[in-house]
Amino acid sequence: MTGPCPRTVQPVAATTNKAPSANFSLDIAISLEFSTFITQVGRTNTQEIHSIVDARCLRKYTQSPMKTVFSGIQPSGELHLGNYLGAIRNWVELQNEFFCFFCIVDYHAITQDYTPKEMRGRVLDMATDILACGVDPEKSVLFVQSDVREHTELCWVLNSVSQFGDLSRMTQFKDKSQRQEHNINVGLFDYPVLQSADILLYKGQFVPVGQDQVQHIEFARRLARGFNTRWGKVFPEPEAKLTSTPKIIGLDGKAKMSKSIGNTIPLGATDKQVRKLLAKAVTDPQREKREDVGDPDKCNVYSLHGFFSSEEDKAWVREGCTTAGIGCVDCKTKLGDNLIETLTPIRNRKKELLADPDTVIDILNQGRDKARQSAAKTMDQVRKKLGLWQR
Ligand code: TRP
Prior knowledge:
The structure is a single chain. The chain contains 16 helices and 5 strands. It is mostly helical and 391 residues long. The protein has a 3-stranded parallel sheet with strand order 1-2-3, sandwiched between helices. Helix 6 (116-132) crosses helix 15 (328-354). Residues 1-44 and 57-62 have low confidence and may be disordered. Tryptophan is lined by residues 70-74, 105, 108, 195, 198-199, 207, 209, 213.
């Protein structure tokens, strides 16, 4: 037992011990502490003892370790609005509630065609943008995948509990294979195993992702279970934590917002560029002329208002659009104003970071060091369970 023993203890509210009582191991820990306490103070006043236990119970409960979140993003260079709304905005929120690892996954990126000379810049740009959006290195661990060797090491181990049939059913593998028929490499096939290694290495419990990644997270769960059954329990089964906006449609109004399709607004776009890109954005296809009425629910620009505009602005657009009181240009101007308001602070932070790239590199190095510590611990457990050679 730590700390001084209270002499007089005020009874604490009855509700305080409700949640902890449901936790079996916590109860055991508390009763152990409790018996030590009685031995030390030699007191058996039941009411007083109950109060003390309640207080301790509450303390333990509120101090219980934070759950771990892991997420990864490919170093595609600059972030765009789709990444921000679908992922990074959520990361920024999660870091207050969870212990977060955020990883720039360059080993995943090499499964697709790329220019090696550009890779470093892409990683750095991505890190800069993530920080500009508000990921805080004081709260979260931000690092680069290839900086921590254990990712590929654990991937190899997990390969031995990955089923060929399971991997061949992955939709993303099928899609990517179609898109790069000239290069259907084994890395592309094994991609979900490396992704599972990313998460499991840090014993990630929650994985914030978009809908398109759920299949991979389910796969990671199967691998965790497969590992634990074959070699003994090491890993928790991770859970996908779907973002509230799992899919952001691009400016073409058709496909998911994606850099490779070119239907995005880059987060670093200037005001002028934002307006220009919005001008091209597809609206309700039925509204061909200014005097036609539109249907906001069929308009992708309206759905973007949903993220950036006040209730009042949205009502104004809805009313104007459905009565042809306003044109698509007016609607886009309003969206542009609101979007620019959100983007301005991000752009300003980005400017500061761009002027000082060493700060970003330092943050990544610190992230690497922290990540390596956790990763080494896990790999130690893994090697023992596997019965691998140890000095
Ligand atoms: N496959 C993810 C994507 O393309 C990126 C990723 C790699 C990831 N490893 C991860 C996401 C681990 C979550 C957890 O979006």
